[in-house]
Amino acid sequence: MSPPIAITPPAELETTSELTAQGIEHSLSRSAPSLLKTQPNGRTLSDTVTNGAINGSNISNGIATPPQELDASLLQFTKNTSPRPVPAAGSPEEASHKVCTDHMIQAKWTVQQGWEAPTLQPYGPLSLMPTASCLHYATECFEGMKLYRGYDGKLRLFRPKLNCERMLMSTGRIALPSFPPTELLKLIVKLCAKDGPKWLPKSKPGSFLYIRPTMIGSDSALGVQRPKEALLFVILTCFPRMDISESGMRLLASKDDMVRAWPGGFGYAKVGANYGPSLVAQGEARAQGYHQILWLFGDECTVTEAGASNFFVVWRTREGVLQLVTAPLGDKIILDGITRRSVLELARKRLAPGYEDLEAVEVVERKFSMFEIEDAVNEERMVEAFAVGTAFFVSPVGHIHFRGRDLTVPMKETTSGAYTKVVKEWLTGIMWGTEQHEWGHIVEEEE
Predict the structure, then answer these.
(1) Residue 409: which residues within 8 A CB-CB, separation 6 or more?
(2) Which of 67, 165, 173, 275 lies at a 20 to 30 A Cα distance from 409?
(3) pTM for the full model?
(4) Distance between CA 123 and CA 217 in Å, rounded?
(5) Which residues does UniProt assign to the signal peptide (predicted)?
(6) What is the pLDDT of residues 255-279, one digit of tens each?
(7) Which structural domain, as residue segments, surrounds residue 292?
């Protein structure tokens, strides 16, 4: 059975601790009450919310009014009168990860008024007080997406609704305000429609911009508490290609004293606190010639993620069954990656029955360990491995270093495994429009 399409607030409430669930519901009620009012199970806001008792409702003439929700129809536009030139493809400027397009989205939230009218405005610095919540307590979350210029001349997003729903889940986990995901998607599309035509011209098919929706706690009160102010912003950034070929990705398996995420934590949410603590180990791994850390958990050395990417193996069991295996979401240690989800859905539909000259595979989501990988390599049952994510896309893995030993992962197609290659081709076709697919979200351009 396929996994659910996305983690939504009700699912999050059902699978987390009682105290955290209450806090998430509180956040929904005070910043996006419509999300609770419209649940398919018929649940409604509690009396304490509808009568204005929860901080965040407004009282006018003794009558409680809900806070203003994020509303893309209120968007206000200010044109950038000093636009910058687009950097040349392959230039150091493009590779710096610092160059953003001419405009950005901003929307401010306060506990008293809710969401203010969002703005599409010139790209520029943010104004924060030194006591801002995000600077002291990591009240920050984000998403990673791409805007593609297709070979058919159209601008596309890839399954953007899932990113917006996942960001809603992340904001709830770190006490930031909620929002209807459809409204965030409208704002992202508006920014892409405005800046896409210039920064991704039709003369450069196969190019992309990186999209970074972000929310930060901007409350200037210094204290360990829920932020009473927040800022949502969306930027478009020039990014070089990061998918790896040739000899494949080199991974360094984490040691016993290195843990990225744990059960009951927040490894499943795309929050800044998941990334900062891993940068020291990541930097050391790169200094030693590795691309990413392969994060393991526990004495069993359970495989979780490859850097910030989801990790897959194709191997043959001792009974002879060919499997495509990746870690499950149940323990909430790994990120519910959009690319991960897409690979699983395509594999179940197209690879499980057998595709062209490729042998059929059994698609499995389960816990597995580095010891199992080691055995599969030693017994020549390992077929291939790859990592997937928005930044690195689909990258074959050719080498894993584990406890002093180098494990070579086969790559049948010289620079990739056969299954890795076909999955990458399918996703590339959808993203750049050579395959018309429902996952490709067309952006109508504006001049």
Answers:
(1) 248, 377, 382, 384, 385, 397, 398, 399, 400
(2) 275
(3) 0.90
(4) 20
(5) none
(6) 877 788 888 888 889 999 988 888 9
(7) 249-431
